[in-house]
Amino acid sequence: KTRLPDSPVPTVSQYACQRRTTLDNPNKVLTDALEVLVENCEFNDSMGPCSGFRRAASVLKSLTTALSCLQDTAGLPCLGEESKTIIEEIIDCGSSSRVEDILSDERYQTLKLFTSVFGVGPKTAEKWYRRGLRSLEQVYSDSSLHFNRMQTAGFIYYEDISKPVTVAEARALGCIIEETASYYSSGVSISLTGGFRRGKQFGHDVDFILTVPEPGKEDGLLPAVIDTLRSQGILLYSDFQESTFDLNKLPSRRFEAMDHFQKCFLILKLRAGLVEGQQVDPGCRRDWRAVRVDLVAPPAERYAFCLLGWSGSTQFERDLRRFARLERGMLLDNHALYDKTTNTFLQAKTEEDIFAHLGLDYIEPWQRNA
Ligand code: DCP
Ligand code: MG
């Protein structure tokens, strides 16, 4: 028998930052199912199994062909027994009983509904559920409950902000923010980040990074933008967070979900007439919709780290940090990259610089949909 020459087996990395994951996902049925399990774990506060299912779903998202049998998963990383069982069930019978049970579970459905309100996390949702509340109407009319400002806005604008934001709307908002910021300084640069930067057609919000070249000048930027939006009559809600960024306190020891840059979480009034391709319906009771917008204003020299951190996906970010720590002995967050071996901060002007410091091939934003 003639032996075939050893052909290199294409291997899939266990790290999302070493995979190219576009929005084309031929295994969406499988990844949707695994993500139901992730969500359910989040509701149950069981973080262990949660990351297992998250990583499994993320690996499948990077594949360019649909799995047709369980054997197709041979050699793929991050697929535990539980994930494989789900995958096999779905391939064989079209659905997974475990996933179907969760989807029809009253607690899951209710927590999903409650956490769909802006400002409501799993803890609050659980509290409402335990009081026997099952619908948003019941929650909102329960006079013994206290809602914070964010949740109140979440209820008032619920219908609008639970409707996905389109690319055209994101663009229109970009123009508004750009013009508004230019009143503060002609040198302001604005970058679209988050899901839209990864090429998504819809988002739950629109994320922008604003920078000014002059060091320190970013301090007054967002308060000025917020004031102008208010005076234009398009500010429906604003939660401004002062910068707590301190170069001397870097690197932060744990993974931080939130960074320390100046930022604001907004709800803006977007007029239909400003959105390209959108007709103003004369019969409509109003010619605008409410949209969620997040702005962050890092010091210009932190821009690359901030951009990389806010571009996502969340799983891509998690794996970048995990890769940095476990494979390179480095600490990465939205502010900086720190080399623990040499005890130095590695500087970066661009995302490419950061990938290079980590010894990673550059992954384009549209390939980060892990
Ligand atoms: N992010 C993160 N960790 C978090 C929250 C956010 O790494 N806990 C990063 C990754 C996200 C980005 O910030 O991509 C923006 O957050 P969004 O919640 O707006 O997420 P996306 O923009 O990716 O998705 P959507 O289309 O739902 O807005
Ligand atoms: Mg977003």
Describe this structure in words.
This protein has 370 residues and is α+β, with helices and mostly antiparallel strands. The chain folds into 4 domains: 16-102, Orthogonal Bundle (DNA polymerase, domain 1), CATH 1.10.150.110; 106-156, DNA polymerase, domain 1, CATH 1.10.150.20; 165-301, Beta Polymerase, domain 2; 308-367, Beta Polymerase, domain 3 (2-Layer Sandwich), CATH 3.30.210.10. The protein is 40% helix and 14% strand. The protein is built from 15 helices and 10 strands. Helix 1 runs antiparallel to helix 2 (47-61) and helix 5 (106-115) packs across helix 6. The mean pLDDT is 95. The site of 2'-deoxycytidine-5'-triphosphate has 13 residues, from helix 11 and helix 14.
